[in-house]
Amino acid sequence: MERKFEIDPPFKEQYFSFMLEYLNLGHMELVPLEQVNVAPEKRFYLPHRAVLKSTSTTTKLRVVFDGSCKTSTGISLNERLQVGPNLNEDLFVVMTRFRSYAVAFTADAEKMYRQVRMDKKDTDFQRIVWRTNPNKPVQHYRLSTVTYGTNCAAYLAMES
Question: What's this model's pTM, rounded to 2 decimal places?
Fold first, then answer.
């Protein structure tokens, strides 16, 4: 990522902006130095990357976290998580109900997954590494909200 940041300053600016917003909104927190080296079975590090959507009217770049990435043990976080049932209603039922009234309202929940806080004891399983300057040490963060890229995110966001 840092090599890409060097060759594409606008990409770097968007990525950094996203990550700083994540931090400023309290959706991730710095792991105190004394807590960085907990036992491997009590933490999990998620790789992150950018997804660009040039047609988006709001956020052209968002950072996604890869819960399917396998570690050196050959196991991913998503393989350890329970998915939960599908809470989406059947599309036919939604469309039938939609046509039942003269007026319909729709809405989009901004940052839907990020509106749901994780239990503090589970946040170490959503760690990332990040730094704003390649000349400084890597810092460890833990994500404190439901994280897209994990297979249980949709269930947790809708159930909450």
Answer: 0.84
